[in-house]
């Protein structure tokens, strides 16, 4: 028999979502005043909700000072744990609203300098035309960003390492060609097996001793000595044309230079192909705006070479 006359143990209340968003906003914007301006919420309301959050958690999240605030250890822990969860809840809310309308919200994508900026420019323009309510942010960066901690919805990478926290979608693949400056033409024509070509390593500190290729159906092997490290294939191409070095570069980037005699074609590399991937966190909800971006990304790169000048 159920007894409705007595109350059971008091149910613990969930943390207030608005208070958590205020907490994140204050940290993100650097002050209570800046958070108030950014969110168009009265400063007094933000302060009150954060005090209530501290009371609920029975701990101090901020140490107030004359110049602002610093996070306590507990505040830092809460921020690191709650920020991705609140962001994901907001994404789910936005996506539910998108079911009856067009994608909206902010989309942050990290892209490497290795891929064509004009192709990405066309993609950005088309995405904007199709989804005008989305605030698209493309950030070109050669470093390996942490998409979860740095707030990226997805990252585009070339031949990335396996990562169980990320889901990958293959976008495009490109053949690598071993090319060299024309100044080595006579040296290579002599066929000296001890000849060492100066080599430029792109984006990594990979130092090969030999490059193996296939040219006109015949295997070829070249001894190399790594002398330069350059993060950009475009700068590498310019360096080769200026008379220094050899490198593995995408076929689409060097095809015209080979035809014009600006670069020597030393064969198709036996190294793995250059493969372009779009990666996003496996534990994060995939929003409609990200799905739309990935679909357009695949369509765009299937129509154009991924790297050209």
Low-pLDDT stretches are 1-12, 305-309
> What is the CATH T-level topology of the largest domain?
D-Maltodextrin-Binding Protein, domain 2
Number of separate helices: 9
Order of helices and strands: HHHEEHEHEEEEHEEEHEHEEH
**CATH architectural designation of the largest domain:** 3-Layer(aba) Sandwich
**Strand content of the residues, in percent?**
25-35%
Number of strands: 13
CATH class of the largest domain: Alpha Beta
Helix fraction by DSSP (H/I, runs of at least 4): 25-40%
Which structural class fits the helix and strand makeup? alpha+beta
Distance between the termini: 79 Å
Name given to the CATH homologous superfamily of the largest domain:
Periplasmic binding protein-like II
How many individual domains?
3
Q: Look at the structure and give the mean pLDDT.
A: 81
Shape label: elongated
Strand order of the largest sheet: 8-10-9-12-7-11
- C-alpha Rg (nearest Å): 27 Å
Major sheet size, sense and barrel closure: 6 strands, mixed
Give an account of the 3D structure.
The chain has 9 helices and 13 strands. It is α+β, with helices and mostly antiparallel strands and 309 residues long. The protein has 3 domains: 17-96, Orthogonal Bundle (Arc Repressor Mutant, subunit A); 102-174 and 275-306, Periplasmic binding protein-like II (D-Maltodextrin-Binding Protein, domain 2), CATH 3.40.190; 176-272, 3-Layer(aba) Sandwich (D-Maltodextrin-Binding Protein, domain 2). Strand 9 and strand 10 form a beta hairpin. The longest helix has 26 residues, at 73-98. Belongs to the LysR transcriptional regulatory family. Residues 15-72 form the HTH lysR-type domain. InterPro entries: LysR-type_TF_proteobact-type, LysR_HTH_N, LysR_subst-bd, WH-like_DNA-bd_sf, WH_DNA-bd_sf. Keywords: DNA-binding, Repressor, Transcription, Transcription regulation.
């Amino acid at each position: 028999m159920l007894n409705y006359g007595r109350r059971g143990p008091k149910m613990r209340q969930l943390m207030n979502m608005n208070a958590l968003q205020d907490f994140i906003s204050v940290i993100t914007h650097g002050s209570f005043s800046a958070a108030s301006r950014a969110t168009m919420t009265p400063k007094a309301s933000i302060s009150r909700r954060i005090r209530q959050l501290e009371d609920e958690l029975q701990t101090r999240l901020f140490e107030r000072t004359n110049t602002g605030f610093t996070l306590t250890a507990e505040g830092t822990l809460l921020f690191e744990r709650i920020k991705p969860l609140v962001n994901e809840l907001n994404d789910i809310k936005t996506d539910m609203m998108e079911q009856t309308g067009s994608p909206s919200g902010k989309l942050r994508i990290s892209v490497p300098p290795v891929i064509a900026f004009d192709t990405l420019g066309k993609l950005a323009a088309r995405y904007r035309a199709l989804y005008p309510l989305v605030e698209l942010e493309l950030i070109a960066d050669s470093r390996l960003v942490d998409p979860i901690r740095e707030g990226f919805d997805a990252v585009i990478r070339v031949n990335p390492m396996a990562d169980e926290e990320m889901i990958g979608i293959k976008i495009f693949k490109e053949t690598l060609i071993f090319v060299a400056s024309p100044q080595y033409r006579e040296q290579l024509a002599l066929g000296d097996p001890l000849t060492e070509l100066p080599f430029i390593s792109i984006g990594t500190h990979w130092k090969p001793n030999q490059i193996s290729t296939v040219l006109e159906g015949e295997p070829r092997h070249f001894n190399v000595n790594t002398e330069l490290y350059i993060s950009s294939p475009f700068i590498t191409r310019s360096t080769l044309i200026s008379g220094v070095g050899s490198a593995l570069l995408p076929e689409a980037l060097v095809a015209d230079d080979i035809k014009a005699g600006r670069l020597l074609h030393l064969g198709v590399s036996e190294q793995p192909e250059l493969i372009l991937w779009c990666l996003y966190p496996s534990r994060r909800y995939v929003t409609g705006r990200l799905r739309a971006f990935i679909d357009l990304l695949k369509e765009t790169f299937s129509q154009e070479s991924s790297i050209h000048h």
